[in-house]
UniProtKB/TrEMBL annotation, chain A:
Domain of life: Eukaryota
Full protein name: Nicolin-1 isoform X2
PANTHER family tied to this protein: NICOLIN 1 (PTHR31239), NICOLIN-1 (PTHR31239:SF2)
Gene name of the record: NICN1
Organism field: Bos indicus (Zebu)
UniProtKB/TrEMBL annotation, chain B:
Domain of life: Eukaryota
InterPro entries tied to this protein: Rab-GAP-TBC_dom, Rab-GAP_TBC_sf, TBC1D19
Domain Rab-GAP TBC: 164-385
Coiled-coil ranges from the UniProt annotation: none
Name of the protein: TBC1 domain family member 19 isoform X2
Species annotation: Bos indicus
PROSITE patterns per record: TBC_RABGAP
Amino acid sequence: MNYPHTCCLPIPTDPAVQLKLHQDLPSGCSFQTPVTLQEIMFKNYYTAFLTIRVRQHTSTHTPAKWVTCLRDYCLMPDPHSEEGAQEYVSLFKHQMLCDMAQVLELRLILRQPSPLWLSFTVEELQIFQQGPKSPSMTFPKWLSHPVPCEQPTPLLEGLPDPSRVSSEVQQMWALTEMIRASHTSTRIGRFDVDGCYDLNLLSYT
Amino acid sequence: MTLTVLRSTRQGSWEKRILKSLNSMCTELSIPLARKRPVGEQKELLNKWNEMGTDEPDLSLFRPVYAPKDFLEVLINLRNPNYESGDSLSFRTHLGLIQVPLKVKDIPELKEFFVELGLTTGQLGIDDSTQVPPELFENEHVRIGQKVLTEQDSAAAQQYIRQGSPTALRAELWALILNISSHPEDILYYEQLKTNVIQHDLLVDSLIYKDVKLTASNDDYYFVFEDYLYQVLLCFSRDTSVLSHFAYNSASPPKSYIRGKLGLEEYAVFYPPNGVIPFHGFSMYVAPLCFLYHEPSKLYQIFREMYVRFFFRLHSISSHPSGIVSLCLLFETLLQTYLPQLFYHLREIGAQPLRISFKWMVRAFSGYLATDQLLLLWDRILGYNSLEILAVLAAAVFAFRAVNLMEVTSLAAAEAVLADLSTLKVMPLLQIFLFATVT
């Protein structure tokens, strides 16, 4: 059974374009200005194979042609059984056969060869275009050029040797870290409320 | 992933039935779901903690919340609204009881999955029998097992145990695979659970008592462990850490409110604290473990881990390959495909095979096989991290008794042929069914 669903619906170019697909209405979408598609997300409903075709904008005046960017992508390994029938699916531009730039129209072709299912479609379709590149960050100079070590101040009389103190403090710190690390994450789970667990009946909600 | 149809419709209404059953028991018997024990009663229970089996409370008015056959009726009625189940027979008509078209493995796929059970690989349960000289397989296998334990390699242990575990090493190997080690905090945790049992009396305690008295206490192999079973199961009901398994279980734990605070969310609690309502036969999940572990907190930890990894799948509805629905479908498909005459004959006489084998699978064969055979079977559940072997064994049992079954003319007679599995040797049956049957 081959139901090519095709048509063009004009919609604004939002970063995420959501469509509701009906079985008896053809499905697909078109964009007012050419977009670069990043990702297509949907929830499957018993579709076995998916083909996606796009029509891209060309700079010359030649009419744009339909190009297949995904051919017979398998959503259900066994079309007769439930596996994969209700999965959430994400398709990225690197999985496509063609470049997803300058897309004017998108067409989804759903196939379900098994006669066992009453209907099949895709739901919660979301299409994402490529977002703007993140701005480059410049790091403050002192991060990439650390200052050279300072001269140690001369020892004051009567005070213990700082290097010995620091090594003892380090040992103590290591001990506390050890104790903290061996602290068990097992919770003594409480099931009562302030010591009270008097219950009459179960709740149905 | 659990399919919407299974999650929303049937599991929901099945759970509601269980809640109603428990609530009506409360109102009929005028017993609260939970209450704090008076101090005198707490002292008394603490004194007889190690011999709770000697108690003979009046349990005649209590009835199990449900039995496996009630659950089977729910599974039989599972339907996918998008599924074309017309009256006319088609190539995919399910002639068994399960009508959900889940993907199950066929014998070629099972042979690949259970490759270590093949004819050319040594097995405990076959190649350690008295006629086989131990130099051929058993000695070396034991030596490897000891090495695995010395290295404390959990993954190696799981691979090793696919060929069975030597009796002397089994307790340690299972603990290694399940990642159970007895730290002081684990013993402390168990003691805390014991304190919870002493302090609060739950209605499910009576259900547990009743179940143990009806099943394990009547079993020749397990009645000696009766006291252990109470010590494990009563604590299990209070263990809130079990609630975390509901993240991957399609079921949801029952809820209640502190008396007088109905509807106030800050007084909402789970009941029982671990969210699991025991059914008839539940104690049989624990009983075989008593042969391996004698220290209560260790026995408890092992059982809890076995439950949250495997056993919960046997009594909740999901589309998981090890879930009970898939196991039932796997069993029926294997029988229908490889023993079509037997399957057809049993159907014709009104003895759908699943009606007989369901109780075996729900209990993971506990109480049906001899204990040494059961432990060899559970070795493989751990080794393959899958319960599918239960369905394969069920089909293998039918194949083994096929000749007798072809001659029966009623469900009762078929049940009688399959009533006693205590003489069966599990590993030869599995091996023959998977690897030596001409298909």
